[in-house]
Structure formats: structure tokens, C-alpha cells
Design goal:
about 240 residues, Alpha-Beta Plaits, alpha+beta, elongated, 5-stranded antiparallel beta sheet, 2 domains, two-stranded antiparallel ribbon, 6 helices, disordered N terminus
Length: about 240
């Protein structure tokens, strides 16, 4: 069955619910559609997670088998980097130190609630690249000559999991993504959308949980069933969306 113009989330009863080994059910028939037990509107949410990281090589030898030497080098590296970039040392994480020339892989984190005077992780890396490219001063003299700096930043599209209750059932009415249960914040959002129909300004299929092209009493009664339901993966979802 093709549905145009909307994405739906649903679960389906198994064919052998009545112990039928070879059920005679035509796809798309009334019997087939009756197997759909939970159907709700709205596509899954995704977030783009960008990790700002780089690899820098120094013309200096560090015995990577010597934990004390590696810890001392790492501390010196983080301290110098934080000073050069004007950021808190806690934002810099060294992920590996390998030998040959000494190669340091590291990440720079953004911070929540940063003000206008705080540079972002991306801005910090751009500034670091400019510092390394400037050969008029050796900013890394206390560590060793820089051989190479490579931007290794990555982007990953992460699908945010659907909220589920303690029994593992999908809960479609946790609209606000606040708290750890379906509550009044979700009700107020639902109330704001009640009465809207497909094609009208402001219509959002997310609230058309019993999909018929409008947010109506069918959706309200389903919402009432979910009210108060605990969301067991609330913290995971909130972490991904930055709440």
C-alpha cells in the first residue's frame, strides 16, 4: 500500500495470530489492514551530530609505552592548546597518542549555553589551522615542531529513537520531549493543534496520531489513553536533541 505525502509509524500483528500456518490474506485487504494496531503520523526525527576533531603530528619522540610520559605530554598539549585558542581545557579531549613522529588525535567540544564571546568548536579548529600555518612564530616550541595538521571532523545523521513505555510499546503522544512521561506539556501542545486538518496552515501530522487528515477526537481519545505513560528512554532521546 502506497501512501503519498506523509510518513507513518506503525506496528503489525503477526500473520499467525490465530495459529494459521498458511493464512489466506490478500495484501491491502480489509483483513490485512485490520492487522495494523498502532498507526501514527509524522516522520522520525533525526539530528546531525558533528564531531570536531583533528590529527596533529609533532617532530618529537614520546615513548607511548610509558604511561607517565604520555600523561605528561597530553597535559602539556591540552594546556598549550587551551591557551592558544582561549578556551577551557575541559573542551579538549586527546583520543590517542601514537609513535613515529608523535601523532596526537584530539577532539574539541562545544559547550551548552555558550555566549557570544565563546568560540565554537569549529571556529577553534579554524583558528588552530591558521596558527599552525603561520610560520612567523613557533607557538608549539614547548612541545616540538609541528609536521602536519589534518582536519578529521565528521558528521553523522542519527535517527532519534521513538519513545517507548515500560512494556516496549511506542508512545506517540510524548510531543514535548520534556520530563519522563506524557503530561500536561504534551496536552497543551495537542490542544494547540486540535481541529487542524491537512491542507490548513499549521497542520502537523505528528498530532494526527489516528491518521484521517485532521486532529480530532479520535486523536484526543488516543491521547487520553497515553496520558501519564512513562517514557523509559526519555533521557536517551533528550540527550540526542540537547534537552
Amino acid at each position: 500500500m502506497a501512501v503519498t505525502g506523509a510518513t507513518y509509524i506503525y506496528s503489525v500483528r503477526p500473520f499467525d495470530a490465530d495459529n494459521e500456518t498458511v493464512p489466506d490474506i490478500a495484501p491491502g485487504s480489509t483483513q490485512d489492514l485490520a492487522r495494523i494496531v498502532s498507526l501514527g503520523g509524522g516522520p522520525p526525527d533525526v539530528v546531525v551530530v558533528r564531531t570536531v576533531k583533528a590529527e596533529i603530528s609533532f617532530d618529537v619522540e614520546v615513548d607511548v609505552e610509558d604511561e607517565v610520559a604520555v600523561e605528561a605530554f597530553t597535559l602539556d598539549f591540552i594546556t598549550l592548546m587551551a591557551e592558544l585558542l582561549g578556551i577551557d581545557p575541559s573542551r579538549i579531549t586527546v583520543t590517542s597518542v601514537t609513535q613515529g613522529s608523535t601523532i596526537v588525535e584530539f577532539e574539541i567540544a562545544d559547550i551548552e549555553g555558550e555566549d557570544e564571546e565563546t568560540i565554537t568548536a569549529e571556529e577553534a579548529l579554524v583558528e588552530l589551522i591558521a596558527i599552525v600555518a603561520d610560520d612567523t612564530e613557533d607557538e608549539f616550541a614547548t612541545i616540538g615542531p609541528v609536521l602536519e595538521l589534518a582536519d578529521e571532523s565528521t558528521e553523522e545523521v542519527v535517527v532519534i529513537p521513538l519513545p517507548i513505555d515500560p512494556d516496549g510499546n511506542i508512545v506517540l503522544h510524548w510531543f514535548s520531549r520534556t520530563g519522563s512521561a506524557v503530561g500536561f506539556d504534551d496536552f497543551f501542545l495537542f490542544a494547540d493543534n486540535f481541529g487542524l486538518a491537512h491542507g490548513e496552515d499549521g497542520y502537523d501530522a505528528t498530532y494526527d496520531v489516528v491518521p484521517n487528515g485532521q486532529v480530532d477526537f479520535d486523536d484526543f481519545f488516543r491521547f487520553a489513553d497515553d496520558f501519564g505513560t512513562s517514557i523509559v528512554n526519555a533521557a536517551e532521546i533528550q540527550g540526542l536533541i540537547g534537552q
